[in-house]
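Note to self: the last two entries modelled the partners one at a time, which told us nothing about the interface. This time every component goes in together.
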Amino acid sequence: MKSNMTRRNFLAGTGGVAAGITALGATPSKVFAGENTVKIGFLAALTGDAAGWGLPGLYGVEIWAEQVNAAGGIEMGGDKYRVEIISYDDEFDAIKATVGAKKLIFEDEVSIVLMLGITPVQAVKDFMTRNKMIVTTLVPTDISADAPYLFALSEVHPFYNVTAVDWIGRNMPNIKTAAIATQNDELGLSSQATYRAAFEVAGIEVIEENLFGFEVTDFAPVVSKLIAANPDVITWDTAYPDYVNLLTEQAYLQGYKGTIVNCTLDQYEHILGKTSKDFMEGFLWQFPDLDDPIMQGGDTHFDNAAAFYKTYSERYPGAWTAVSWEYAASLEMWKTAVGKAGTFDPPTVSDALRGLSPVPHAFGDAEWWGESFFGINSAALGKWPVVQMQNGKAVIVEMGDVRAWMDKHGDVLIKHFKALGVPTSA
Amino acid sequence: MTDLELILQTIINSLIFSSFNALFAVGLVLIFGIMQVVNFAHGAIYMVGAFSTWYLYSENGVPFFVAIILSTLLCAALGLFMERVLFRPMRGNLFGGLIVSVGMLFILEVLSVYLFGQGLMKNITPYFRESWHVFGIESITVAHSRLLVFAVATFILGGFWLFMTRTRLGWAMKACAQNPEAAALQGISIGKISMLAMVISAAMAGAGGAVMAPLVRITPHMGSPVLITAFIIMIVGGMGSIEGALIAAFAYSFFHTFVTTYIGGEIATILGLVLMLMFLIVKPTGLMGERESV
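The predicted structure of the combined assembly is written out below.
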């Protein structure tokens, strides 16, 4: 067929439209007024590729706030303060994160800002530091010596990934080879470096790696190549939740028979539905259901973990993910520091946080760590669970000791961080 | 898996990917050829096909194949609406049509968020759970759900080819694409042909979304990467050339799949774009495009 439009016109028009598509609107999703209220900012992806690590966290934070408010609020200086959550969708985008950060500080006057990490955190880090605002990230590689109010309270991604591989090394001696596939971004690369290090320490050779971009729609060739290498274990590294879903389904459809170890396995009921209970049996990952017996006591520090999980699962059936509890767990630690500081003033609370020893982490007592990697001890590092699929249910098989592994093999990890160009001050 | 088996597996993966890309791109090219509209909403129609299949089949228990047919019809109706209400008033206005299609893209994406929420992908429990071992070889597999994509795309494109080459309406459509004024002088209704073309195009995108739904991320923005691939195919094939789009769809898909398999997924996309640029330098009109006279 013949066209009357020239390619120049076509490209000019489509380019203009593409530029227009980037328009942004950031609006608070929920605001309610009240006296004696402390405001908490939530600034993470609620839409887009990273929404799986933002939206479920907001659900968890809202449940946490309800539970705290139902108990009378946060006590500080003899008064009770209701918790108010103010959220903005940064779409995992630097510009939108900046807009949201300014609104949270100048308009909403929050006392802490909860963020996912990577690009949005890097975009607002200096601004937050200048305004002395406590910011939490789920990605410790964000922290640096020039950002003293930035903390990795709940999650020490990707370092905890070593625990599952360490468990494999001790419990599955027949596993000798591994293959890795993930998206090529900061999250994927830092995790890839960690898995490389963990496999090396465990005596497992990485025989195949495949990095893909965000535009991928067909995962069949990615999985075909991995399976062709006949690895004993495959990892999707820290692939985004939807990618894990589709990659795992492809492995099932292409007849993969080996072990899979991964950072996350969000909404695993859906993946069980797409594959089979037999195929998923033994799948290893790092994030438990909070109704696990091990989470109901011992030295864990997440109050009413089972009740939190029950409320979440009833309100959002099948929506439980790795981050459902993490932002809330960060708030638990912040609340402890507020109690010690006797104020909501961020710099004072920041000092109180640093004074916590041991750090009351959800998975047990932790210590401040990070100077060897990032020049500042702002990450709570301690234990992290190894979770295994058993008969269609997540079961904690071991509380791995990340700190001990790092003390023993940190140099191996630094080697692989540097090899992949992942920022570290070491 | 031996090297030969991996090559065979990659060829099969490429064929499946090609068939879908061809189905999607031909619909886009058809609209451009007949109506001179770069339909940015084509990816959103694909999204509607996937979402409606999920909603009908997974959420409401409508039989899978009935859901596919209903989703395709819904998208065809959407195409009819777009032609009558949006594109027809813009006929002859190249950028007006383009802007209207972008508006429709936003409306459909926001509507899907409003109706079905956002966050993680919608999950379809697959209708097919098994895979076919090609030639009885254990290591070479094709999921039945992927075979369905190939079968549906082949059926629709085959039917479309017969329609275009064996029916008076098809000839009229070709005539409209080649010279609308001359076609109108011969008594061909440009409005009716445009409407028919838009219905066919939207049905192709919708059917693609419906059969791909169990295999891809069902999200409001799922149409964007598919649309970008289709634009590459459209440019390489030659603007407005259906034959060119078919050839380019297969060439690009084979290239992309082989590079993904043997080098890496991200490199495949970069090399695909580089290849497109190099091709345009060598043959600016695309594979089957015609050089315009000044």
